[in-house]
Specification:
The complex is a heterodimer. Chain A is of the alpha+beta class. Helices cover about 25% and strands about 25% of the residues of chain A. Chain A contains 13 helices and 31 strands. In chain A, the strands form 9 sheets. Chain A has a 5-stranded antiparallel β-sheet, with helices on one face. Chain A has a 4-stranded antiparallel β-sheet with strand order 5-31-30-29, with no helix packed on it. In chain A, α5 (about 85-95) packs across α6 (about 105-110). A 4-stranded parallel β-sheet of chain B has the order 7-6-8-9. In chain B, strands 3-4-5 form a 3-stranded antiparallel β-sheet. A two-stranded antiparallel ribbon of chain B has the order 1-2. Chain B has 5 domains: about 15-70, no CATH class; about 80-110, no CATH class; about 115-300, no CATH class; about 325-475, BRCT domain (Rossmann fold), CATH 3.40.50; about 530-580, no CATH class. In chain B, α9 packs across α10 (about 155-175). Chain B has 24 helices and 9 strands. Chain B is an alpha/beta fold. Classes of the chains: A alpha+beta, B alpha/beta. At the A-B interface, α11, β5 and β28 of A face α3, α9, α11, α23 and α24 of B.
Chain lengths: ~675, ~575
C-alpha cells in the first residue's frame, strides 16, 4: 500500500475522477491503518499482563464514572472517596518500586495524608498508569518455570522477588490473585458492579444505551445527488496492471538510458580539432612499443571459427592456376644477334627537304636514292655521303617516286597530282644517257598508239624538267615498275580503273610479281592476285584487316606482307592458304609502308608512330617448313610532329646491303646500317 | 518435355548423377542435419562446386561418392545406437525407473575417431603436413575460459592445455622450432618436423573475447577430432624419441601450473631410464609409476639434468639447422620476471638451448642466482638490478631466435623502445624492400658466422665482442663492395675494347661520323639494346599470352610503386629526424 502511495506522483495521466477516488481511498486506508495500530497496541498490552489491563480498564471506566458522578452529585463522590486512596496508592507507589506491601498496610500508611492530595495524586498517576511496567520483569514466559522456585521473578534492578505465602482465607474472596506479581488485588465495589453487569450480558456501564434511536446528522436538503453509499470496488484495492506495465516500461527506458533526467551536457563547439600534431612523426613507428602494450585481439575466436567454417562449408574446386614467369611467356626464338646482319643504328641523315618526305626509292645499284616531298621537290642523294645530287622543282606535292629497276636505265617516275613525270636523272654513263634520251624522245609519238585510249592518259614531253609528262584525270597515288622496267602501273583515285579485271572496292596498292607475270592488287580488305597473261584471277587473299595501307611481295614471290591502318601486319604464305599465316600487331598507329629486302631475309614496316620495325623473315625452300619471322630491331629517330602527317612515311631497303632508308614527316631521310 | 527429362529406364548421367544436394544427402543417410555436419567435419568431406548446378545456385552440393562413403561409415550406425539409447534412458526416467536409467547411462555406446585419422592420413607425414589448423585450435582452446552455457567443459580445456604442452615440450626438446613472431593476434610459431613445416598461432594469455556469433557446436566437433589427432601425433613423436607417451608428470609442478617445465623434465629424464624400465617391467604398474615419479623428483638441481640432456643429444643425429638452433642460447641462463608471459618464453628459450627459470614455486633456480645471464623484464623501470646480468625485454628473445644469433642487448634494455619486430615469415628479397634493422641483423649474422669461436656467454664481454664483430663485418662489406666495383669497371673496359675490334673487322663505312660520333652512336646502341628488349618479345605473342605478359608487367610495376612509396616514406622520416 505504501508503494502505491509513493508511486502516485509519477502518474501523470490520471483522470480527475480517479484522483478523487484515490483520495477517498487514501483516507479510508489511513483510518484503517490507525485502527489497526490501536488494536495492535491493545493486543500487546493484553499480552503483557491481562490482569492489570482488566484492572486498568475497569479503573478508567471507574474514573469516568467518578467524573460523571462528580458532575451529578457530590454525595456520591464523597461516598466513593474512601475507596480511592486504597486503590490509588499502590499504583502511585509502583514506579518507586520500594517494597511490596499489603494493601491493608498501605491503607493504614496513607490514611494520615490529606485526603484531597491523595486523591489528586491518584488522578495524576492515572495518566502514567499505562506506562507502568509490571514489577516482575520475567516477561512473557510461562509462570510454571518459577513454580518450584522461591522467587517469582526479578524486579527492574535484577533483584529476586520473593514468593509470598498464599493466605487462603475467606476474607480474600473479594480479591483476585495476580499470579505474575504474586499479589492479590482487591476489587472495589464499582469493579464488582461492572463484572456483574458483564456477566449478565449488559454493557459495563449503566448509562450506555446500545439501542438508542438513530439520528441522521447529515443534512440531505439542497444536495443535488446523494453521496454514494456503494461499497468500494475491488479494483481500488489491487494494484493496477496497466499502470504496472507503464511503470515497467518507464523503468526499462530509464535503465537503457532512453529517458534522461539531467540536461544534456553542452559540449564546447570549438575544440582542438587536429590534436597534438607535433608527435605525428612518432606515430609511424610500430603500433606497440612493448609486449605488455599488446592488447587482447577481439576477433581471434571469430576468425578461428570462420576458418573452421571454411574448412567444412566452403565448396572446393580445382582451379587452374597459371604459374608463369616472364621468360616462359616469351616465345622461344633465335637470339636476334644470331640473325645479323640487320640495320641497327642510324649512320647517315639526308637533310634538305622543307616538307615531309612522302616517298623514297633506291636505285638498283644502291648508289643513289630519290625522294619526293610535299614541298614539291624531287631530290636525288648519294647514299654513302648524304650529298644531294639533283633537285627538281615539280610544282606541287610529290606523291610517289620510283626508280626504274633496270640498272642501266636510271629513269625516275614521279607522281605529282594528276601527272606522272618520267625524269631522266642523267646519272648513267654517256652511252646509257644517250639511250635514255632517245627513249624519252621516242616514246612520245609511239605510246599513245599503243594505249589507244587517249581519254585516260595523255603523253607530253616536259622540256623544263627534261622528261615525259603523263597526264591523268585523277590524282595518281602510286607508281610501280615492272621488274624489267618496261611497264609500270599507276594508281589513281576513284574511277580510273583501267585494268582488265573486275575489282571489288578501291585499289590501294599494286605490285608486280618479282619473277612471273603476276600482278597483285590490294583493295581495302583483300589482296587479289591476277595472272597477267591469262588475264584472270588466281587467288584472293583475305586479310581480315580493317583497312589495308600497303603491301610488299617477297622476292621469292610466294609470300606477301600486308600492312594495315590499324597497325597490324599480315604475312601471307600463298602456298599455304588464303588467310594470313601470321598477324602481328605491334604498331600503335597506322602502318604507312612495308618492304622486303631484295636479297637478305629481312622485311620492315614503318608507321605513323615514328618507329620502323625490322624483322627477320626467312622463307625456306623446303615447303614443309614454315617461314620464320623474328622481330629483330626497332628503329627510332624520326621526331613525331603533331601535324596531320607524322612519323615515318616510307621505308626502303638498300638493294645490296642490309640497310634501311626511312623517310620521315620531319623532312629527314635516315639511313640505318648494321 | 521438361528441360531435364530422363526417359524411364535410363540412368542418371553427368552432374545429376555425380552430385547430390545437402538435403538429399541428409535424407539418403537418414541422419539429422547436426549429425550430418559432424560426420562431414570428421570425415573431411566438403561441398563441391559443380559446373552445372541442376538444383539451383542456392544449394550446397556434395559428391555422390562422398555420400556413399559416408553411408558406409560405422560412425553413422553408432550414432543411431546412441540416439536409441538416449531414448531408452529418457523412457526409464519418465517411468521413474532410476536404477535402470543409471544402468543404461553406464552402458551408453561410445565411439572413437582414431580410425578416421588413419583413414584421412595414411602416413604419419600426411598428418604432420595437415597439423596447422589442429594446433591453432588446440592452442586457442587452451587459452579459453570455460563456458557453462556453451558446453565448453573444463575437460576440453584441460585436454587442450595438456596436448599443447606435450607438443611444445617435444618441440623444445628436439629443438625443432624455426621461426617465431609476436603479432596482435598471438604468437606465430613455425616448426619443422620430418621436413614438414608446421605453423600455428598461440593466442596471448589475455582473456579471450567471446562473441555471440560463434557456434560452439561446430568448434567442439572440430576440437574433438583435433584432440584425437594431436594425441596420436604426440604419441608417435614421443615414441620416436623413446619416451613413454602419456607422460606422468610431477604433481607438484603440475599444481604450480608449470606443466611445460614438468613435461620437459619428464622427457629429459626418460631416455636415461630405458635400462631401468626393462628391469621395472616385471614390477606391477603402481610401483612403476611411483618409482618414475621419485626418479623425476630426485634431480632437483636442473643444471645437472641439463647436462645429462646435452650428453644424450650428442648421440642423436641432428641436421644442420637443428644444431644451429640448439646452440643459439647455449650456456645462457634466463630468468623471467613476474609480468612476462611465462609459457611462450619458456617454450622458445628452451627450444633454442637456453635454461629458464621464473619467479614462483617450483622454479629451477632463484632470482638471486649469480649464474643468470639475462633477466627478461617487461616493465617500464627495474628497481633493483644485478650487475652480473642484463635486463632485456621479451622481444629480444624472439628477435634473437629469428636471427639465430645473440643480438646486442642495448636496444632492448628496460624502458627503451625496442627496434621494430620484424617478421621472419617475410622474404625480404622477394618483397624487394629490406628494412634497416634487417640489414643490421644480416651484418651481425655475417659477423657471427665469420667468427669461428663459439659466441662467448657472459654479459658485457659478449656485447663488446658483438660490437667488434659488427665493425669487422662492416669493414669487410666495404672492401667487398670496392672489389666488386673494380671488377665491373674492368669488364666495362674489356667490352668496349671488344666492340671497337668488332667494328673494325666489319669495316663499316665511317662516312657519316668521326670517331667521337661513333662512340656516341655506340653508346646509344647499347642503350637501345637494353630498352628494346621487352618490346621485341611482345611482338610475336598471341593475344592471350600478351595479356598475361602485360598483366605480369603491371604487377611488377605495382610492386615497384609500393616499394618506391616505402622508400620515399623512409627518406621523409629520416629527413624529418634530421
Amino acid at each position: 500500500m505504501k508503494l502505491k502511495v509513493t508511486k502516485k506522483p509519477t502518474m501523470a495521466t490520471t483522470k480527475k475522477n480517479d484522483k478523487k477516488k484515490k483520495e477517498k481511498q487514501k483516507i479510508a486506508k489511513e483510518k484503517r491503518t490507525s485502527d489497526k495500530k490501536e488494536e495492535r497496541r491493545n493486543k500487546k498490552l493484553l499480552k503483557s499482563n491481562k490482569k492489570e489491563k482488566v484492572r486498568d480498564r475497569l479503573k478508567k471506566i471507574d474514573l469516568r464514572d467518578e467524573e460523571d458522578e462528580n458532575a451529578q452529585s457530590s454525595d456520591y463522590k464523597e461516598a466513593s472517596e474512601p475507596d480511592s486512596p486504597g486503590r490509588g496508592i499502590p499504583k502511585g507507589d509502583a514506579p518507586s518500586n520500594s517494597t511490596i506491601e499489603a494493601p491493608n498496610y498501605n491503607d493504614a500508611h496513607t490514611s494520615g495524608n490529606d485526603d484531597d492530595e491523595s486523591y489528586f495524586s491518584v488522578e495524576e498517576s492515572d495518566s502514567s498508569e499505562d506506562e507502568v511496567a509490571p514489577r516482575n520483569t520475567i516477561g512473557d514466559v510461562p509462570l510454571e518455570f518459577y513454580k518450584d522456585e522461591e522467587h517469582i521473578g526479578y524486579d527492574v534492578k535484577g533483584r529476586k522477588i520473593k514468593k509470598k505465602g498464599r493466605t487462603d482465607n475467606i476474607a480474600n474472596f473479594l480479591k483476585i490473585n495476580d499470579e505474575l506479581n504474586d499479589e492479590e488485588v482487591e476489587l472495589s465495589r464499582k469493579e464488582i458492579k461492572i463484572i456483574r453487569r458483564i456477566a449478565e450480558g449488559k454493557t459495563p456501564h449503566a448509562d450506555v444505551d446500545p439501542y438508542a434511536p438513530y439520528v441522521d446528522w447529515f443534512d440531505w436538503d439542497g444536495k443535488g445527488h446523494p453521496l454514494s453509499n456503494a461499497p468500494e470496488p475491488k479494483r481500488r484495492f489491487i494494484p493496477s496492471k496497466s499502470e504496472a506495465k507503464k511503470i515497467s516500461k518507464y523503468v526499462r527506458a530509464i535503465r537503457e538510458g532512453r529517458i534522461k533526467f539531467d540536461k544534456p551536457k553542452e559540449e564546447p563547439k570549438v575544440y582542438l580539432l587536429w590534436g597534438d600534431d607535433s608527435s605525428s612523426s612518432e606515430k609511424t613507428r610500430g603500433l606497440y612499443t612493448s609486449l605488455r602494450g599488446v592488447p587482447a585481439y577481439e576477433n581471434y575466436l571469430k576468425e578461428c571459427f570462420n576458418r573452421l567454417l571454411d574448412l567444412y562449408l566452403c565448396p572446393r574446386a580445382r582451379k587452374k592456376r597459371l604459374n608463369v614467369t616472364l621468360e616462359s611467356l616469351k616465345p622461344k626464338r633465335v637470339d636476334p644477334k644470331d640473325l645479323k646482319p640487320y640495320p641497327t643504328t642510324c649512320y647517315v641523315e639526308y637533310k634538305g627537304h622543307n616538307g615531309a618526305v612522302v616517298s623514297i626509292s633506291t636505285e638498283s645499284t644502291g648508289q643513289w636514292i630519290a625522294s619526293g616531298s610535299i614541298d614539291g621537290t624531287v631530290r636525288i642523294w648519294e647514299v654513302a655521303t648524304g650529298r644531294c645530287v639533283r633537285v627538281w622543282e615539280v610544282g606541287s606535292a610529290v606523291r610517289h617516286v620510283a626508280w626504274n629497276p633496270l640498272p642501266n636505265q636510271p629513269i625516275l617516275a614521279v607522281s605529282v597530282d594528276q601527272d606522272v613525270l618520267i625524269l631522266d636523272t642523267g646519272l648513267g654513263s654517256e652511252e646509257e644517257q644517250r639511250k635514255i634520251s632517245d627513249l624519252l624522245q621516242f616514246e612520245k609519238p609511239a605510246i599513245p598508239d599503243e594505249s589507244g585510249d587517249a581519254d585516260i592518259v595523255s603523253w607530253h614531253s616536259d622540256d623544263k624538267l627534261g622528261g615525259l609528262r603523263l597526264k591523268h584525270f585523277k590524282t595518281v597515288s602510286s607508281i610501280e615498275w615492272h621488274r624489267r622496267g618496261d611497264y609500270f602501273s599507276t594508281l589513281s583515285k576513284k574511277g580510273s580503273q583501267r585494268i582488265p579485271f573486275k575489282l571489288h572496292g578501291l585499289p590501294i596498292s599494286t605490285t608486280f610479281h618479282p619473277s612471273r607475270s603476276i600482278f597483285f592488287i590490294a583493295t581495302k580488305k583483300n589482296v587479289r592476285v591476277y595472272d597477267l597473261l591469262k588475264e584472270k584471277l588466281i587467288k584472293k587473299l583475305d586479310t581480315k584487316l580493317r583497312e589495308v595501307s600497303s603491301m610488299a611481295v617477297h622476292p621469292g614471290g610466294d609470300n606477301v606482307i600486308v600492312g594495315s591502318r590499324e597497325g597490324k601486319l599480315c604475312w601471307f604464305d600463298m602456298d599455304l592458304s588464303s588467310t594470313p599465316y601470321k598477324t602481328l600487331k605491334y604498331h600503335t598507329k597506322d602502318i604507312t609502308n612495308v618492304a622486303f629486302h631484295r636479297s637478305y631475309p629481312l622485311f620492315a614496316s614503318c608507321s605513323e608512330d615514328g618507329k620502323a620495325y625490322v624483322f627477320h623473315g626467312m622463307v625456306y625452300s623446303d615447303l614443309n617448313q614454315d617461314p620464320l619471322i623474328v622481330p629483330v630491331r626497332i628503329l627510332q629517330g624520326h621526331c613525331i610532329s603533331n601535324r596531320n602527317v607524322a612519323g615515318v612515311l616510307d621505308c626502303k631497303f638498300h638493294p645490296r646491303q642490309p640497310w634501311l632508308f626511312t623517310a620521315g614527316a620531319d623532312s629527314v631521310i635516315k639511313l640505318f646500317c648494321h | 518435355m521438361p528441360k531435364h527429362y530422363r526417359p524411364p529406364g535410363k540412368k542418371k548421367e553427368g552432374n545429376a548423377a555425380k552430385y547430390v544436394t545437402r538435403s538429399q544427402a541428409v535424407k539418403g543417410l537418414q541422419v539429422t542435419l547436426p549429425l550430418f555436419r559432424k560426420l562431414c567435419i570428421w570425415k573431411g568431406i566438403f561441398p563441391r562446386d559443380p559446373k552445372k548446378k541442376l538444383k539451383g545456385n542456392h544449394q550446397t552440393y556434395y559428391h555422390t561418392k562422398d555420400m556413399s562413403f559416408l553411408h558406409h561409415d560405422p560412425l553413422v550406425d553408432i550414432h543411431r545406437d546412441i540416439r536409441a539409447h538416449d531414448k531408452k534412458i529418457k523412457k526409464a526416467l519418465s517411468k521413474d525407473n532410476k536404477p535402470r536409467a543409471e544402468r543404461l547411462k553406464d552402458q551408453k555406446p561410445t565411439y572413437n575417431l582414431d580410425r578416421l585419422i588413419i583413414e584421412r592420413y595414411p602416413r604419419f607425414i600426411d598428418a604432420l603436413g595437415d597439423l596447422d589448423d589442429c594446433l591453432t585450435m588446440v592452442h586457442l582452446f587452451a587459452a579459453l575460459p570455460t563456458l557453462q552455457n556453451e558446453k565448453v567443459q573444463v575437460k576440453h580445456i584441460h585436454t587442450c592445455r595438456r596436448l599443447s604442452h606435450e607438443w611444445q615440450a617435444y618441440i623444445a626438446r628436439t629443438h625443432k622450432l624455426r621461426k617465431t613472431f609476436i603479432s596482435v593476434k598471438g604468437i606465430y610459431y613455425q616448426v619443422e618436423v620430418d621436413g614438414q613445416k608446421i605453423t600455428w598461432i598461440a593466442p596471448h594469455s589475455i582473456q579471450q573475447v567471446l562473441t555471440d556469433d560463434v557456434d560452439f557446436n561446430v568448434m567442439l566437433t572440430f576440437l574433438e577430432y583435433y584432440e584425437t589427432l594431436l594425441a596420436f601425433v604426440n604419441f608417435q613423436l614421443y615414441h620416436n624419441i623413446n619416451v613413454k607417451y602419456p607422460p606422468i608428470l610431477d604433481p607438484r609442478l603440475e599444481a604450480l601450473a608449470a606443466e611445460l617445465y614438468a613435461l620437459s623434465r619428464y622427457i629429459d629424464s626418460r631416455p636415461m631410464e630405458q635400462d631401468n624400465d626393462k628391469l621395472l617391467n616385471q614390477v606391477d604398474e603402481p610401483n612403476l609409476m611411483l618409482s618414475q615419479l621419485q626418479h623425476q623428483l630426485a634431480p632437483s638441481e636442473p643444471g645437472a639434468l641439463m647436462h645429462l640432456v646435452e650428453e644424450t643429444e650428442l648421440v642423436d643425429d641432428a641436421d644442420g639447422e637443428t644444431k644451429e638452433c640448439r646452440s643459439v642460447f647455449k650456456n645462457l641462463r634466463f630468468f623471467l620476471s613476474r609480468e612476462v608471459p611465462r609459457e611462450p618464453l619458456l617454450f622458445v628459450i628452451s627450444a633454442f638451448g637456453g635454461m629458464v627459470s621464473w619467479e614462483g614455486d617450483g622454479a629451477p633456480f632463484e632470482e638471486s642466482d649469480p649464474s643468470i645471464t639475462h633477466q627478461i623484464v617487461d616493465r617500464p623501470t627495474q628497481g633493483h638490478m644485478f650487475l652480473s646480468r642484463e635486463y632485456v625485454q621479451p622481444q629480444w628473445v624472439f628477435d634473437s631466435v629469428n636471427a639465430r644469433i645473440i643480438l646486442p642487448t642495448e636496444d632492448y634494455l628496460v624502458g627503451r623502445v625496442p627496434p621494430p619486430h620484424l617478421s621472419p615469415f617475410v622474404d625480404n628479397e622477394a618483397e624487394g624492400y629490406t628494412p634497416d634493422y634487417a640489414q643490421k641483423i644480416k651484418q651481425l649474422q655475417a659477423a657471427a658466422k665469420k667468427d669461428v669461436l663459439p659466441i662467448p656467454a657472459i654479459g658485457n664481454e659478449d656485447q663488446d665482442d658483438t660490437q667488434n664483430l659488427l665493425l669487422d663485418g662492416v669493414a669487410d662489406r666495404v672492401e667487398a663492395n670496392k672489389a666488386a666495383e673494380k671488377k665491373k669497371e674492368m669488364l666495362k673496359h674489356e667490352k668496349q675494347f671488344h666492340n671497337e675490334l668488332k667494328m673494325e673487322l666489319q669495316g663499316v663505312s665511317h662516312a657519316a661520323g668521326t670517331l667521337q660520333n661513333m662512340e656516341a652512336v655506340k653508346d646509344q646502341a647499347d642503350k637501345d639494346e637494353i630498352s628494346e628488349e621487352p618490346d621485341l618479345s611482345e611482338i610475336g605473342m598471341s593475344r592471350r599470352k600478351r595479356g598475361l605478359y602485360q598483366s605480369i608487367l603491371i604487377n611488377k610495376q605495382r610492386k615497384k610503386a609500393k616499394l618506391d612509396k616505402l622508400e620515399s616514406r623512409k627518406r621523409r622520416i629520416e629527413e624529418s629526424q634530421k
